[in-house]
Amino acid sequence: LKKLNIGIIAHVDAGKTTLTENILVLAGVIAQAGRVDKGDTRTDSMAVERRRGISVRAAATSFCRGGIKFNLIDTPGHVDFVAEVERSLTILDGVVLVISAKEGLQAQTRILMDTIMARQIPTVIFVNKIDRVGADIAQVVEDTNDYMGGRLVATQQVAEDGAVLDLTERELAEVAADTLYSHDDELMARFVDNEDIPPADFCESFARNAMCGCLYPVFFGSALYGVGVESLLDSLPKYLPTIGGDGDLAISTGGSDTVYADNDVGSNLRTNGNSNLPLSAIVFKVDNSAKERLAYVRLFEGSMRIREIVCYQGKSEKITRLAGLRDGKLTAESIIESGDIAVLYLKDLMVGDILRDTARDTLDDMPGDMIRDGISDMHDGKMSSMPHKSTSMARKVSLGQPTLNVEVLPTNPAERRELYEALVLLADEDPLLGLSSDNSLTVRLFGEIQMEILREILAERYGIAAEFSAARTIYMETPTQAAQARIPINKTFFRAGVGFSITPLPRGSGLQYVRAVSYGELEKSFQVAVEEAVFAACQYGLYGWEVTDMRVEFDYSDYDSVTGTPSAFRDLVPLVLMEALKDAKMALLEPILDFELRVLDTSISKAMYDLQMMRAYSYNTTALADGTLAITGQIPADTSRGYGTKVGSYTEGRGMFMTRFYGYNETDFAEEKVNHGKINPAANAGLYVMQKLGAR
Ligand SMILES: Nc1nc2c(ncn2[C@@H]2O[C@H](COP(=O)(O)OP(=O)(O)OP(=O)(O)O)[C@@H](O)[C@H]2O)c(=O)[nH]1
Ligand SMILES: [Mg+2]
């Protein structure tokens, strides 16, 4: 069976879940479409989703149609849950981008379109809600086409009465011709040669270009009323890359020793879906909502069988239970083939883990590299929780990162333990929560809605009432000059000696670790301990924030072969590192957003004043065709929080303020920006040593 792994993505409320529901009806998985508003859809299965009519988690379902097995992921549209979309996009072969004909291009649509284009993700566009009064279909298509560089081709026509009509091959060839000429050199050459090109050749070229994420076919419909859904569904295999089966379109990527494609041209045809190759798979979702913990795994190459061994995180385990997605259900399976999605019950599997069938090459680099990649990726904002070293062909996707830090408190102080345990399970599903439990329980969030939902999940899934402290901006810290620190073995109570040189790196570089001590000088298990301790220590620096944009060179070690232990090194590392940071003149970094502010020209002076007060920078203004002014630039997340609501009120709903994560930039030091509860304990050397030695 061929496989097609697709996702449905869109701005919030565009109709993704409704579309999914109607697709499942057509595929015969369910008899009747549920309604988001009634809370009885398949993919909005959590209580909070049903009650609020908003998707929170990416939900996977599946069905077979026309000899193809579809795995379909319905993603949430709200910006606060963008991490779910990010994790899904990592492993999908193609997506359906839903755009509401009524609302047109919305903030999140633009972010998704940027990602689709940057990563060349094969995409089909579904213009939904054409039944809505006031929907300007032509305008939506034009806006989208402009935004996506003129790469759209409508494959249908919407009649006066709202009926959706597929274009014939000849009509499609005509409509697509100009677009195709600019993307298909061969077709262009034939055109120049005055050749009479048959319509089928245009259609074939169109499909080929869609399949590699170069052109975007457009469909129309009304998911709610089931209009246009069948046409869309039947066309998906034509325009999105299927995996495996005969007449394989997918191309082998050759040796497969890197998990993430570098997103070069052609990387979309990422796997030949060969089940006979060694296993290469990645965990993209963990679900703790049911009694048992489920780990969803996308297989890129190789197959997975029950009772076989899989290797991950440098260890080997036997698959004792295996499940797959079949006709909308989770079913027990004895084998999952390449290109498909498996569900495993191994309890240590984490989001981002890479699975192999032998321990080849992984042992050598784990776990240090795994940790390093995971962390440095968080820093450079390129990826969240997915390590990108090693095997197979997932795709790096970055849609933002949380900028808010909140403390979670149990309403009943006696429930702190239960709250902690519940949060551990939730952070297991969503590693970006970055749960920290040192003194207080804190999590990282994208926004207020996520906070509300978290509160509701804690209540309904775990029966715990929780409160949140006021959200605080997540700062980071970084050295402004190079520094060095060394503590030899005879100058410390720890049975170890280490030294580091640190160097500032450009913004967005993240944390880099260089090992300048050979394995001859210090053996591997000790080196791993040092490296892990460096990354752990850099989670909280002198101001209590993560240390980033820095290179740490491990350049000195001293070791007592009789009494030395890895844990002695682990204990000493933070002490030496903090000493180096103190000499490196640490600066604070704050999260910066790209923004677009739209106002009428009557409000422009108010807008400009506000932007100045919020410390916006490098912004410029353009007049739009509809008479509004668009101001774009960068702005601190801290000062602009909640500004969207204010714009709404001073423009009487006609203005808007859209933002997306940009990166971290230096900010002035201020005492209230310090994260007092999380300052690295090793920053106070005397106390730290006493505590460590006392604990022995
Ligand atoms: N009139 C009309 N309403 C629709 C259509 N499709 C969806 N809706 C309605 O739009 C609302 C949002 O639909 P959903 O399917 O939940 O949208 P979604 O994209 O899944 O939303 P999130 O997952 O929360 O981002 C619901 O009230 C639907 O009934 C449509 O084609 N026409
Ligand atoms: Mg939804």
Which key phrases capture this entry?
globular, single chain, binds magnesium ion, alpha+beta, six-stranded antiparallel beta sheet, 696 residues, binds guanosine-5'-triphosphate, 19 helices
Describe this structure in words.
With 696 residues, this protein is of the alpha+beta class. Helix content is 29%, strand content 27%. The chain has 19 helices and 35 strands. A seven-stranded mixed sheet has the order 2-3-1-4-5-9-6, with helices on both faces. Strands 17-16-19-12-11-20 form a six-stranded antiparallel sheet, with no helix packed on it. Strands 26, 30, 32, 33, 34 and 35 form a six-stranded mixed sheet that branches. Strand 16 and strand 17 (329-332) form a beta hairpin. Helix 6 (169-181) packs across helix 8 (199-211), helix 11 runs parallel beside helix 14 and helix 14 (524-537) packs across helix 15. The protein is globular and about 85 Å long. The termini are far apart. Mean pLDDT is 89; it is low at 246-271 and 361-392. The structure holds guanosine-5'-triphosphate and magnesium ion. The site of guanosine-5'-triphosphate has 23 residues, from helix 1.
